[in-house]
Amino acid sequence: MSSLWRLTLATLAKDIRLEWRSKDALNAMLFFSLLVVVIFSFSFDPLAEESRHIVGGLVWVAFLFAAVVALNQTWARELRNQVLDAYRVSPAPANALFLAKVLGNFIFVSLLEALMTPLFVVFYNLHVLGPAWQLIPVGLLGTWALVVNGTFFAAMSVRTRSRELMLPLLLFPISIPAVLGMVAGTTAILTGNNPAHFYIVLLLTYDVVFTTACLALFETVLQAE
Amino acid sequence: MTGLPIPSRLPIVSVSNLIKQFGRFAALRGVTAEFTAGKLYAILGDNGAGKTTLLRTLAGLAHPTRGQVSILGASPRAACRDIGYMAHPSLLYDEMSGMENLRYFARLYGISGDERCQAVIRAVGLDPALARPVGQYSQGMRQRMSLARAILHDPQILLLDEPFSNVDVHSAGEMVDLLKRVRDSGKTVFVVTHQASLLTATADEFIWMQAGKIVARSTHFSPAHPSAESSGQQPPPEAP
């Protein structure tokens, strides 16, 4: 195993241990998503047919906002006691840190999605009319799109005074193509009206482009003062 | 564990016309100095004199606005394997024990196994078996664990920012003894401190900074020089 992956896994293990002990990000994400599900279900009380058309948007907006909570926490814990400086003065590659953070956030957000999806199904009386298995690539690729950009922009905004505000301002505009792909893809699968292949390819392309760009630029972000 | 060859006579660290500005405020105003290997340098001065900025620039954490820093003939980033850095904050994760912290940081330097981590924890007078998270340590214990992290990879150059703050007299004495051993093994140690009296018998050179400049260098520290012990400091006469 290369040193990049060894360090990535060591950092990922450390992040999972820290999250397991503090549960800062998971608790906040879970309660936020739960509130969204309950409040929207009371607000709309939609029929099953209507649900299929709107729930794709609801689900991804809930996950997007919840992910922002985790993304802010990711770097905030590196700033306590200025621990990030210990990484910056070490010979460890910047991309090991970035990949570990992305993988960590991917695990946390995927866990949230796995817990919340059954609730969406129950509260919105959902029945999938299209090929249900396609929800898996849309979910995985969509989640990766959120966390890869989110982790990058959270690192950029973490040293600013109003980082909680800065992250959505940076992340949401650049995530529009991915969010469109996730929402349209999910709706296409739920309603069974259109094939979702186009959206899966769109998300895959988006992920490849932005993962490459973030990996290429992260060292500059990390070593910036 | 060292990366770059150590020059025998050439300066191990040199800075040339170093200027560091934060917006319109200049924290360093043209610092030029050379430091030879195997010595312990005590950097003294008022708050805001530029001591921490100088140390962060040597560590590669702050980038010079102008001027050059050379560590073993290379940039601080290229020489990072040879630099150990201890900051005023602990640079440790509060939720993990000391051993867990060091185990993680050891991986960053390619050190596997627990032997080295246990050895440096013992060297700073702590118990490697202590399972308490660092967040529950006393400030003095945290400082010592932070020093353990800085010397973990056996660096050639040790940069320490206020290592004795909030440490009791006995523990501070033990830390000074450890720094002396590190220096005697041929390593170069820079200590930014307001407690210069702790280093009077150990430091090879005292460096006084004021308003972003090195204003004096001396091999002797005298309590008559108020600059190290209190604010309202006056540097000693310029060293020849």
Fold and architecture overview:
- The complex is a heterodimer of chains A (225) and B (240).
- Chain A has 225 residues and is mainly α.
- Chain A has one domain.
- Helix content of chain A is 84%, strand content 0%.
- Chain A has 8 helices and no strands.
- The longest helix of chain A has 32 residues.
- Chain B contains 5 helices and 9 strands.
- Chains A and B meet through helix 1 and helix 4 of A and helix 2 of B.
Task: Record the SSE blueprint.
The complex is a heterodimer of chains A (225) and B (240).
Chain A: H1 3-22, H2 24-44, H3 48-79, H4 83-88, H5 94-123, H6 135-157, H7 163-191, H8 197-223
Helix pairs in contact in A: 1-5, 2-3, 2-5, 3-5, 3-6, 3-7, 5-6, 5-8, 6-7, 6-8, 7-8
Chain B: E1 13-22, E2 25-35, E3 40-45, H1 51-59, E4 66-71, E5 83-86, H2 98-108, H3 115-123, H4 139-151, E6 157-161, H5 169-184, E7 188-192, E8 205-210, E9 213-218
Parallel strand pairs in B: 3-7, 3-8, 5-6, 6-7
Antiparallel strand pairs in B: 1-2, 1-4, 8-9
Distance between the termini of chain A: 32 Å
Strand content of chain A: under 5%
Number of domains of chain A: 1
Please name the CATH topology of chain B.
Answer: Rossmann fold
CATH superfamily of chain B: P-loop containing nucleotide triphosphate hydrolases
What is the domain tally of chain B?
Answer: 1
Q: Compute the CA-based radius of gyration of chain A.
A: 18 Å
Note the beta-strand portion of chain B. Answer: 15-25%
List low-pLDDT spans of chain B.
Answer: 228-240
Summary tags:
heterodimer, A: 225 residues, mainly alpha, 8 helices, globular, B: 240 residues, alpha/beta, Rossmann fold, six-stranded mixed sheet, three-stranded antiparallel sheet, 9 strands, 24% helix, disordered C terminus
